[in-house]
Specification:
Blueprint (H helix, E strand, L loop, with lengths): L6 E11 L12 H15 L4 E11 L2 E13 L3 H15 L5 E9 L4
Helix pairs in contact: 1-2
Length: 110
């Protein structure tokens, strides 16, 4: 891409399964998750994208699959990411969330 100025940045991805940690059931819908995510991101004015996918993992009772949500955030700091991940962990009632951090180059095409 000729004459495109890319900026360097960090892309964070937060992966959250929506199965409840106590019942191993999906008690929340994707729309419920969207509402919970918007609560904190709108309040803090954090830019994000949300991707719905299928995930699988092993837990105390064996292997399972579940609806997995991937929150992609560019332009936030580590503290904000930690707050979002902690908030989602509590609100979804899950044991863990996975956070990844990747150095990227990006630009907005106009």
């Amino acid at each position: 891409m000729k004459n495109v100025d890319f900026k360097k940045g960090i892309k964070y991805e937060i992966f959250v399964g929506i199965k409840d940690k106590d019942s191993y059931e999906e008690l929340l819908s994707v729309d419920d998750f969207k509402h919970i995510l918007k609560e904190i991101c709108v309040e803090k004015q954090i830019n994000f994208s949300l991707i719905t996918q299928l995930g699988g993992y092993t837990h105390d009772k064996g292997y399972t699959t579940e609806t997995s949500m991937r929150v992609v955030i560019i332009g936030a700091n580590k503290g904000e990411i930690k707050r979002i991940a902690d908030w989602l962990k509590i609100r979804i009632n899950t044991d863990t969330v996975l956070v990844t951090k990747t150095k990227i180059e990006y630009c907005f095409m106009k």
